[in-house]
Write a structure and sequence with these properties.
Elements lengths: L6 H22 L4 H7 L6 H33 L51
Helix pairs in contact: 1-3
Length: 129
């Protein structure tokens, strides 16, 4: 039995963290248009900056989160173990009606019912023509 991380959950979390980082960076960058004009820099609005950072942040966040998920998956594969499970069918015995007369059957005379017969392991035909 092996537990592996859910990659979609890691990707969603990475995208969310990337978006939050883009918002924080957008708010923390001062918007000084006079400085940009005086030094020949391009003028971008705060929404444009947020859009650029959002694109980059989401992609980088997903990449980092999926890298962590892959590392956790590899780590969990080293600790895997094999378990053999048997299928058990549980059914209630039918209750006889009071209107129907039933012959009493001795438990020793009743045929044995085996719910889970033993399974033979599959074989291969290696080396046979």
């Amino acid at each position: 039995m092996r537990r592996s991380p859910k990659f979609a959950n890691f990707a969603m979390l990475g995208a969310l963290l990337g978006a939050v980082a883009a918002f924080i960076l957008t708010v923390s960058i001062p918007q000084d248009l006079e400085y940009a004009r005086a030094n020949g820099f391009a003028e971008y609005s705060q929404m444009q900056i947020f859009g650029f950072l959002l694109l980059i942040g989401v992609v980088v966040g997903i990449a980092i989160a999926l890298t962590i998920a892959i590392l956790l998956d590899r780590r969990s594969s080293k600790k895997r173990r094999y378990v053999e499970a048997d299928r058990v069918d549980v059914r209630e015995a039918p209750v006889p009606s009071a209107d129907i007369e039933t012959d009493a059957v001795d438990a020793a005379d009743a045929p044995a019912i085996e719910h889970n017969p033993p399974q033979a392991y599959p074989t291969t035909n290696e080396g046979k023509a």
